[in-house]
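Thread: "does anyone have the structure for this chain?"

Original post by V.I.:
We have the sequence but no experimental structure in hand. Need at least a predicted one for the grant figures.
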Amino acid sequence: MKKLILFFIFYFLFFINCFSQSGWFVKQNFPNHNFTEIFFINQNTGWIAADSGNIFKTTDGGENWDLYDSGNPYYFYSIKFIDSQTGWIAGGKNYWNPFGFDYGIIMKTINGGINWSQQYYNNMNSMVRDISIADQNTVYAVMGGASGNSGSSTFGAVIKTTNGGSNWVTDENVTFSSFAYTSLFFLNQNTGWIMGQYNIENWPGPRIILKTINKGLNWSLIFQDTVGASVSSFQRFKIHFCDSQNGYIGYNKIQKSTNSGQNWFISDSLLPNNDVGLFFINKDTGWICSSNFIKRTNNGGYNWTNQYSPYYVSKIFFVNSLTGWGLGANGRLLKTTTGGTTFINNISNELPDKFYLYQNYPNPFNPSTIIRYQIKESRFVTLKVYDILGKEIATLVNEKQSQREYEVPFSINQFSSYQLPSGIYFYTLHAGDYIETKKTLLIK
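Reply from O.Q.:
Generated one for you, tokens below.
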């Protein structure tokens, strides 16, 4: 019995250690909510939508969250803001019975999410799947699909407002029955893409991608695959473009286009789940998530680095190359401040009475070492590694931290793109007015 207990203790510690190397940690936990979408307008202010019609908001980088009720028990698929006050949320409601309808809805806030007003509603067995904001007045939305995976009864439509949502107009040129639009992305006021899928004999058929270069006045069919290449659960398709040429599609595998969406090739096919979240901050740097995997690319999707998570992760959002968020199962909110390359571990509940940066251990090291430090009061903390010429090698910590003692692993394998040679390196801790630098030695 003792051996069995020790085995489970060892397994638990090993499991947590695997997560600790990924750079993702559980920032908050709301077990009575299921998160559906996340959006940040900057590093401090962000919103999370839940499937119960609730919206969470933070203004301090996720340290604290306020809960607001949208007034409707809808499942929200998309939430977007153009500034700290003005945003839209979209989704629908399913009655889950043979005679019921899927309702679609769009709501708007002008006070940062405290209050929401309904702007659009339909009972056409078609929920609003995605929205994209072109400017303060122009917003696009796509609809399609019953709640089921294939959706035997569907109604695909593109709708648009040019007056901030006071009126929504349906584009009749791209509105069809037995069809579903699942995702759209506008690069600027003129250029955007929408993605959908036909429903053939109660089963999803070919995927299509439409593009506009004149604010949605006209849409051109630029891509259509074969029936044999189609898959079910079409509402999960997501499309994202980094610039006018480079774009990505997420569903079970990641596909990339380098010619504005006309052709696609597989960028990654090792995702274990159909639900795929993806986010790119530029054409080279991006993340994808699916089930218990988070992956990052630094070269436009040609190679991916695994960042394992012990929790299911469905959606992902980054505000810059370091700070990102992931939505986990059962109301878990994950965060990274290092782009997913290191993990900050709170190693003690004791409250330090001074700021202090310890010597790393082991030292010399190869390939990894641990850097420990303590914070005597809440401060914004950065911990960076430099080479002997003063070039910044890595940012290990970049966030506000409470009074605690912490440790952070640093591994040259996680920063292999730098091809770090043997030699002297420095790591510097900034915590308010406190600055401390220590030297370490890498020996290969």
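V.I.: this helps a lot. The two ends are 43 Å apart (CA to CA).
O.Q.: and Residues 239 and 249 are 5 Å apart (CA to CA).
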